[in-house]
Amino acid sequence: MSYRSLIVHLDDDARSEPRTAVAACLARTCDADLAGVYIVKNPDIPPGVLAMLPADTAARRLEERLKAQRDAEVRFRRIATESRLTAIEFRAPAGDELDAAVLHARYADLAILGQPAPDDDQADFERDLLHAVLMRSGRPSLIVPFVSQGQPLGERVLVAWKDTREAALALAGALPLLQHARSVVVTTVGHKPDIEPEDKIAESRVMSWLERHRIAAKFQREVAEDIDAGNLLLSRAADIAADMIVMGAYSRPRVAELVLGGVTRLMLSSMTVPVLMAH
To answer: For residues 250 and 243, is the Cβ–Cβ distance under 8 A?
Structure first.
């Protein structure tokens, strides 16, 4: 099994370059096609107001948007060329931005997105785009931290395992990377030291599944309260020098995640390495 088609979200921020470098590295490793999908938040100008703008002002705004798009394409093609990729495509879809992101992600094996930066004036839009792709595309997403320098990933992987649909989808979505990893550690976080029989069965089955795919993973069990699970996973990732985390996204309804400050929300705000998620 391997990825055959990847997409990476492009925008006008300089942080999209390291994200594109990560995507290009994955495409080269997996011999996959790579599409750069340029999606930015267009200013909400009511048609009536737009019609009242002087013609030269409207034309200038349009030219600025087209120039930003051309610049993004130049950056994307430069990184792809430096990575010796040939099967590439630049896309600038029209229409609703979130719908476009979901649609293009749905017809790719993996979407590479960026973690919203707290100091970015587009952070709210980037967060909405990220959640839309995670919740609606039906495909796994790789979220690259905003502090990333474009380093390769997939050598040492921490899998945050939970016996849920979302975790199973993320694990399956990460399979091409796990098969090339030098080290895979499967970690479960329980709320109490005692282990239920069904937990033991689930843990045994996930390790057997990985073995059948020729992945020699190690297993570790941790105990933490709900609020500390995310921080514990980040700590364990640092302990093993993981360069990627695999986990399910929003195993509870997203409203509950936002209210309770769940693991998904914490990981999206505090990730230190790329995180592959699926819902």
So the answer is: no
- Taking the model in full, what pTM does it have? 0.90
Residues spanned by the domain of 104: 5-144
140 and 112 in contact (C-beta within 8 Å)? no
Q: Average pLDDT of 200-207?
A: 91
From residue 262, alpha-carbon distances to 87, 122, 173, 253, 265 in Å are 39, 23, 22, 10, 5
Crossing angle for the helix pair 16-30 and 55-82, to the nearest 10 degrees: 40
Residues 63 and 87 in one domain: yes
The tally of domains found in the chain comes to 2
Q: How confident is the model at residue 261 (pLDDT cuts 50, 70, 90)?
A: very low
The strand pair at 244-248 and 275-278 is best described as parallel
Same-domain check for residues 90 and 130: yes
Q: How far is CA 245 from the centre of its chain?
A: 10
**Distance of alpha carbon 140 from its chain centroid, rounded?**
7
Judged by phi (left if over 0) then psi (alpha if -120 to 50, else beta), residue 31 lies in left
Q: 149 lies in a domain? A: no
Q: 218 and 124, same structural domain?
A: no
Burial annotation 88-127 (CB, 10 A radius, 16+ → b, else e)? bebebeeeebbebbbbbbeebbbbbbbbbeeebeeeebbe
Looking at residue 85, what is its pLDDT?
Answer: 95
Question: Which of 101, 122, 144 marks a domain boundary?
Answer: 144
Percentage of the chain with pLDDT > 90? Answer: 70
Are 6 and 108 spatial neighbours (Cβ–Cβ below 8 Å)?
yes
Residue 257's pLDDT is 45
Query: 70: Cβ–Cβ under 8 A, 6 or more apart, which residues?
Result: none
